[in-house]
């Protein structure tokens, strides 16, 4: 919810320009003017610690990314129909982080485009039209990806060719997440068969970000993926959220589950804010798709994008950001569990690396999700200079995603602000 307001002329202009499509955070939105590392600065000089960060993942305005983009844009910035060394150097480096069976990489500008393409490749290969997603998933803003995004469809029913299954939550699957999730998958496959679509693919984000962050037990995804494969469908790993070292143990979220995706889509942190995304695929799948349709993207993977992407890969490696995500993420989880002992409103802490979810519930009852208290905490944190978002079917999961360069000291600033906020919230 937001205050439209006399007193904020820029907000008025924004609401008039975007109209009903305006998406702004906070009851009173913040005007940002610059950022660096884990910090953003508002027009009034107030500094905010960014715990919402899922794009400038190696740190806001990282000087190496800025230099790489500036140098390349001043040298050569063209469409993608020519040979350019910087692009293939980048693709080789990116491919080296992925499993060997994914031979081809195509670049696009947004995660939505990447997922749209992955859906088309899966349909062409399998001859099927059905897709399986999770209940509160978000996969993009195109016609096809909106159809598979219950979070974007709001209260609209899912189209007939899409079946949503519950998130891999221990509250849903009390007898074991792996087994329950696989059984739900089998039911979804049967529904798609009955409706005559068959299953083209399961598409999911391996950290289940918009479902509320479900990370454990590592490996739970494998049985569900097997069910889909046995039915002739592919598994598309949407790595837009968990990819690029955020989960701390691996470069890619699916690697925690020891599964081999047929298609991997990626985006957001890939260029640290430079718009770029991509799809990794098996050559056989790409060949079949290109016989039938083909693909061209004017801007996707141009030399400037490649320069930005290369800088991001170099920084992750050289600044040891995956290790940092694991260590500082562990510190935050430990801190949250300590807070939980004295604040029963916290009913669960989940996550890995710097992707963490914390449920807030009424009366300490995990089955009484409290969205209003979550909104109060988010706004209370904002007053204390920390930016954070919510996720999950009931909007009661605090979603923590600070930049991968977060320091132990910055993690403590967040934990102290949260403790203070919880102390002041009813
Ligand atoms: N997949 C997931 C998991 C996402 O979170 C998003 C964006 N929130 C997308 C796809 C779409 O990416 P984009 O906004 O770059 O089109």
TrEMBL record:
<dbReference type="Pfam" id="PF00202">
    <property type="entry name" value="Aminotran_3"/>
</dbReference>
<dbReference type="InterPro" id="IPR005814">
    <property type="entry name" value="Aminotrans_3"/>
</dbReference>
<dbReference type="InterPro" id="IPR015424">
    <property type="entry name" value="PyrdxlP-dep_Trfase"/>
</dbReference>
<keyword id="KW-0032">Aminotransferase</keyword>
<keyword id="KW-0663">Pyridoxal phosphate</keyword>
<dbReference type="InterPro" id="IPR015421">
    <property type="entry name" value="PyrdxlP-dep_Trfase_major"/>
</dbReference>
<dbReference type="GO" id="GO:0030170">
    <property type="term" value="F:pyridoxal phosphate binding"/>
</dbReference>
<dbReference type="InterPro" id="IPR049704">
    <property type="entry name" value="Aminotrans_3_PPA_site"/>
</dbReference>
<dbReference type="GO" id="GO:0008483">
    <property type="term" value="F:transaminase activity"/>
</dbReference>
<protein>
    <submittedName>
        <fullName>Aspartate aminotransferase family protein</fullName>
    </submittedName>
</protein>
<dbReference type="InterPro" id="IPR015422">
    <property type="entry name" value="PyrdxlP-dep_Trfase_small"/>
</dbReference>
<comment type="similarity">
    <text>Belongs to the class-III pyridoxal-phosphate-dependent aminotransferase family.</text>
</comment>
<keyword id="KW-0808">Transferase</keyword>
